[in-house]
């Protein structure tokens, strides 16, 4: 399985099928490259890496997104963190 497919699987496990379906509906010629980058690099490489578990990775992501004032991304990563066992 390629990194893009691995990324989509990780996204599905973290965010659920409804998130992926909604994300796919927003794909167009302008943002397709960003969608592919997120699937292949952010989730297919970074989130799929070994070394720390998904719960710890979620905590780190939430901390970084909070520090960077990224509320849109924070919302989806909070949902993923709950899936990963964060409370």
Summarize the structure.
This protein is mainly α and 87 residues long.
Determine Rg (CA atoms, Å).
13 Å
Largest sheet, in brief, is: none
What quaternary form is this? single chain
Class computed from helices, strands and strand pairing: mainly alpha
Using DSSP, what is the number of strands?
0
Write the element-wise H/E pattern from the N-terminal end onward: HHHHH
Query: Ends: how far apart?
Result: 32 Å
Q: What number is the mean pLDDT?
A: 93
What is the percentage of strand-forming residues?
under 5%
Q: What is the overall silhouette? A: globular
- Number of discrete domains: 2
Low-confidence stretches: none
How many helices? The count is 5
Could you characterize the architecture of this molecule?
- This protein is mainly alpha-helical.
- It folds into two domains: 49 residues, no CATH class; 36 residues.
- Helix content is 75%, strand content 0%.
- It is globular and about 35 Å long.
- The relative contact order is 0.16.
Q: What are the main properties of this structure?
A:
mainly alpha, 2 domains, 0% strand, 87 residues, globular, 5 helices
Show the helix and strand layout.
Elements: H1 3-15, H2 17-25, H3 32-47, H4 54-67, H5 71-83
Helix pairs in contact: 1-2, 1-3, 4-5
